[in-house]
Amino acid sequence: MGTPRFIKNPSGPVLGVTDIPVLKVDGLYFKDMERTGSLLPYEDWRLPAKERARDLASRLSVEEIAGLMMYSAHQMVPSLQGSPFAAAYRGKSFEESGAEPWEMTDAQKKFLSEDHVRYVLAMYIQNGEIAARWNNEMQAFCEALPHALPVNISSDPRHGASKAAAEFKSEAADTSKWPDGMAMAATFDPDLCREFGRVVAQEYRALGIATALGPQIDVGTEPRWMRVEDTYGACPELVTDMARAYCDGLQTDPGASSDAEGWGSDSVSAMVKHWPGGGPCEGGRDAHYPFGKFAVYPGRNLEQHLKPFLEGAFKLDGPTGKAAAVMPYYTVSWRVDPSGQNVGNSYSKYIINDLLREKYGYDGVVCTDWGITQDPDDKIDSFGSRCYGCENMTEAERHLRILENGVDQFGGNNEIKPILEAYWLGCKKYGEKAMRERFERSAARLLLNSFRCGLFENPYLDPEESVRILGCKEFCEAGFAAQLKSVVMVKNNGVLPVSGRKKVFIPGRTIDERKNFFRGLNGKQSQAGADRNKVEEFFEWADSPKEADFAVCFIESPLSDGYSEEAGYRPIMLQYRPYTAMEARKESIAGGDFREDFSNRSYFGKSNRAANEKDLDLILDTRGAMPAKPVIVVVRMHNPCVLAEFEPYADAILVDFGVEEKAVLTLISGRAQPEGLLPVQLPADMETVERHAEDTPLDYCPYKDSHGNVYDFGFGMNWNGVIHDERNAKYHR
């Protein structure tokens, strides 16, 4: 590929080109992307982005528009042998090929040139320099193709300070580390969230990323949901303010020209998810899996789940106005559609066309969640296609139905054939003129985000500049300070902070066999409680309780699974000891699946156990071995859980919603003071969870500890006691 060169305009954007012709008009420079020798509207950066997008959409073939509607599979840079989504280089594995780590794979060359894909999803990227060079390779490759359409690289969240268990979290690749989801929510600070969004935008653009698959702005009303940790908590007002702030920070380029509505080369398009809210999943079961496909509204609170979209992401304070894109969730929003249809959200005319497009006037990109158009798996306990309610359709018919509803893009689909088949089905149904117009509407929306982010003028990166930006001292220090603000202390018997280099005992952990995200089996694991090297930056390491001055027990919230092939439906647990659901519904609200000969998904009377039940044992055993010494518990809280089983035995409890180990140790040592507040309630017991309504915010009974403190929304402590400040005065039940 050619080396990019950069052409400065006397008044206007810098152009990045490899071998494309450059036009000079009125003393200004423009890229001759059509190679016509004359300036076309979409090539003229002086025109509004919407006008340019419409002009280019009209010039694209149906096949080229279908390419825009697709997303690549997850890309690994480089794609190593044996890694997920492995690919070949010149017909060989990466290791055998002698390829540079930034070179394009055979599959990438094919889907860019033959399938016309331009939205590429990056998963693993080795480092910033490789990311920049890979970006430049793809952009130069596409510059030589018709229309010189640039690649728009996308990513799932990359900045989280802690490894999460719910869904894909992409490799950080040199980025700074920040609290995300509930951890950011625990700061109760939308201004900090806006700062985070601005840092993410700068580091993403240094990696070549122009679209963020986030933020996740579901209201986390259901504490058992595996994705609640990625939300901004259970208070609609706090979630709304966080959503608005993050999108503003992500999309607004401080250096944008006055006529660009806040968009520029430092902007990243936000794809907010998940419309109309993925939080109220029945019994906490997640819709990645057929056994968790239903969202229910026993409290009739759909509007509370729409609030972060309508009053947050769609009503930004900054000049970009609204989030550039929206992703509906997999769920069947049970009995929300007045017509009585119960289908996945992207298949629902009512939820997409009638509500999102028409009633609320959203005109940005709508992209389905990943993998909803292929044929379903024959097992209900599977990670297969999620074509809920439309299983009897062909793939082409599913694509057409989704397009009819006003969706523009198919997440996780990089097969062009069913989209083209859907086009011709639509031509038979509506006529070719109407179908062409429908395709062009989506193309214009999809192209608009690339025009707004400056990709048509300069999609290229300077690898040295990328390395300088990524993980720079300023961003890393800001991210770590934010982590410290996010940790919540809910109990302290006067043992914190621990001063001096005292000896600490940290017991190891055991996690039993359990299903993983892809429904494969993770074997039994034994692991250290903490990284000894990191601990010894603060304290002396003790190998036994006897020689220690104090103990720290690092644990996770209970890990359980709401379905198994042997037991069927069963309770998702928020406690450590085995549990039998005697307060659960005897009849489920929603049900029905072609793989089941029943519709009642109740787990009343069934039992379950946590894979990490031994986390509770290690606290009790440590307490028994150290009856007169401080025992501190640090809970990595994926889900709001029941602390009643161990709270009386702990001298202090810190709740970590997703930070680095170093942040917790910094607080324990007194080098910083805890400031976080609970963005959720911590339930008194499982019975109160069973009695609550999945769609209702903050409606269960919170735990009261042995000191009389109630672990309710907005509760937190610092060294002086319970925190009462402007944050929990503004956001409260």
UniProtKB/TrEMBL annotation:
GO terms for molecular function: beta-glucosidase activity. It is an enzyme of class 3 (hydrolase). Coiled coil: none annotated. Pfam families: Glyco_hydro_3, Glyco_hydro_3_C. Residues 487-718 form the Glycoside hydrolase family 3 C-terminal domain. Gene3D superfamilies: Glycoside hydrolase family 3 C-terminal domain, Glycoside hydrolase, family 3, N-terminal domain. It catalyses: Hydrolysis of terminal, non-reducing beta-D-glucosyl residues with release of beta-D-glucose. Residues 103-374 form the Glycoside hydrolase family 3 N-terminal domain. Keywords: Glycosidase, Hydrolase, Signal. Its EC number is 3.2.1.21. GO terms for biological process: glucan catabolic process. PANTHER family: LYSOSOMAL BETA GLUCOSIDASE, PERIPLASMIC BETA-GLUCOSIDASE-RELATED. Belongs to the glycosyl hydrolase 3 family. This is beta-glucosidase.
